[in-house]
Specification:
Elements: H1 3-6, H2 8-19, H3 22-37, H4 50-57, H5 61-70, E1 77-79, E2 82-84, H6 87-100, H7 121-126
Antiparallel strand pairs: 1-2
Length: 127
């Protein structure tokens, strides 16, 4: 495969002089010049796998998968059956999870069972 066939911009640059006259080419160059000097922003964002998201957040990967299945965590896309998650979706899910978690004051303490005297070992041997 030729270099021009792999790069559509190179193909366009090769064909423009045949389609436009010198004056039109100069006008096009003047209009494009500001864009040539400015830095190009990276259009791609990193999409996380469920395992990567779990590692980033510090939870088990099954917690992430459960959140995806329940619809609490939005999926940006899929590669095959594997979900890909955006950083924004992970952060939003984490903030919602933290906000909806019960406070320590709202949790009920577990009752400890005490041994009653009639069920003690001594009472069993006294008979």
């Amino acid at each position: 495969m030729s270099e021009a066939a792999r790069d559509p911009l190179a193909e366009l640059a090769r064909w423009l002089p045949t389609a436009l006259d010198d004056e039109a080419l100069q006008e096009l160059a003047n209009r494009l010049r500001p864009f040539m000097n400015s830095p190009v922003k990276e259009a791609r964002t990193h999409l996380y796998t469920a395992a990567e998201a779990a590692e980033e957040v510090g939870v088990n990967v099954e917690t992430i998968r459960r959140a995806i299945r329940s619809g609490e965590l939005d999926v940006a896309g899929r590669i095959g059956r594997s979900p890909r998650l955006s950083r924004e979706a992970i952060d939003q899910w984490l903030n919602n999870t933290i906000a909806s978690a019960p406070t320590a004051r709202g949790r009920r303490r577990r009752r400890s069972q005490s041994i009653r005297p009639e069920h003690s070992l001594r009472a069993a041997f006294d008979d």
